[in-house]
Structures are given as C-alpha cells and as structure tokens.
Amino acid sequence: MLAGRVFGSLAELDDAFIAWAPIRRRQVHRTHGEVIAVRAERDRVALAPLPDHPYAVTERHLRRVGKDCLVSFDAHLYSVPARRVRPGQLVELRITRAQVAIHAQDRRDGPATLLAVHDRATAKGSWMVDEAHGDGLPDGRSRSTTTTDPAPTKEADDTAGHRDEQATDSLSALLARTAAARVPVGRRPLAAYDLAAGLQTLGVT
Fold first, then answer.
1. Strand, helix or coil for residue 1
2. How far is CA 49 from CA 25, 44, 52, 57, 142, in A?
3. Distance of CA 62 to the CA centre of its chain
4. For residue 61, which phi and psi values (nearest 5 degrees)?
5. Quick check: 70 and 126 in contact, CB under 8 A?
6. How far is CA 137 from CA 62, 109, 145, 176, 178, in A?
C-alpha cells in the first residue's frame, strides 16, 4: 500500500501509515503463520519490565599481565593481585566509561573470574595501582646488592696474569703459522724517507 508512493510532507506520511496499520495487523504473517495482531498481543504480555539501572555498554579487550603485575590499556597501567596471576597470563579488561574491571581469562583458570576493579584513568600515563596487589612480588631482600666493585683477590690476579700469558702465546703461535709472517721485510733508516721527500740532502765530501 505504501510502496512506490511519494509523500509531500511528514504529516501526509503519518496519515498514510495510520490508515495502513490496521490492514496489516489483520493479515497473516508469512513467517510464523499467525495473524499479526494476535501474535503482537501475546508478545506484549510476555514482555518484562525494564531494569531499574540502565544497560551498561562495555568494551572488552585482552591483555597480558606484566612481571610487575600491571596491565596496560590505553596508555595507562592497572594493577592486579600478584598472588592470583602469573607473568604473561591472559586477562580480559571490561571497560565502561567510569571503570576498568579485570578478569582472569585463561583456559587453565576455568571460567572468567574478577581480579580487580579500578576507576578508569583520565590523564595519559596514569598508574592505577592498589598497593595490596603488590603482595607476592619480589622485594629484593633475598639478594645482596653492592654499589662498588669487589676488591681483587690473589687468585683473581693470578688468573688474570695467566690469561694474559695465554693471549700472548696464542698471538705468537698464530703469527708463526701465518705465511705472511715469514715474508722477509726490508728495513731502512728513517732518514731515507726524509731524503726521498726532499726534506734532507746528501752531504758532499
């Protein structure tokens, strides 16, 4: 009824649709085989009320956990509990306008589980870190550190001297085996080069 028609205004289109709708509702739908008005009424009864809170639009991204139990997203870093993750583990970030929720997402972990929730960072390069998440990270107490070179020992001096002797002997042996090292080389005093360059003249006796 409406196909191929041209309408001069929106009001004219509305009037045509209102006149066409009752005709369409009395027809049998070719997909489900029921009268459209009857099926519409049954569908309306089955509709549930809208939820109290609006539907949250969420972005989902996969990331890897770093060795410092931090996850990078959009130039920001977000922490996860060190004792619940391992370096390189795959996690899923569920991003809303206000929050970043991080879930474990690994076949070995079974279903996705919530690891951490942070406010979404706004300033570039922000670190959204929960200090409690660092529990379990190495703190350096198990390793000794020094700020100066250790004092040399007699054994170290002897070893270094032995290495120098070996290097000298190895170089001599290498030169002895090289054919170029056995080519005779002429030797002349440096004054001969000055004479050739005109910097010195032969004395006349």
1. coil
2. 24, 11, 9, 19, 60
3. 10
4. -140, 145
5. no
6. 23, 20, 18, 58, 57
Nearest to 81 by CA among 91, 69, 89, 96: 69
pLDDT band for position 130 (cuts 50, 70, 90)? very high
Question: Residue 70: what pLDDT?
Answer: 95
Question: Taking the domains of the chain in order of start, what are their residue ranges?
Answer: 10-46, 59-134
58-92 pLDDT per residue, tens: 999 999 999 999 999 999 999 999 999 999 999 99
Residues 101, 93 contacting (CB under 8 angstroms): yes
Provide the strand spans (E) within 46-160.
Answer: 59-64, 70-73, 76-79, 90-95, 99-104, 113-119, 127-128
**Widest pairwise Cα distance in the chain:** 140
What is the rounded CA–CA span in Å between residue 52 and residue 72?
33
Reduced to 3 states (helix: H, G, I; strand: E, B; else coil), residue 7 is: coil
| Residues 27-53, mean pLDDT to the nearest whole number | 91
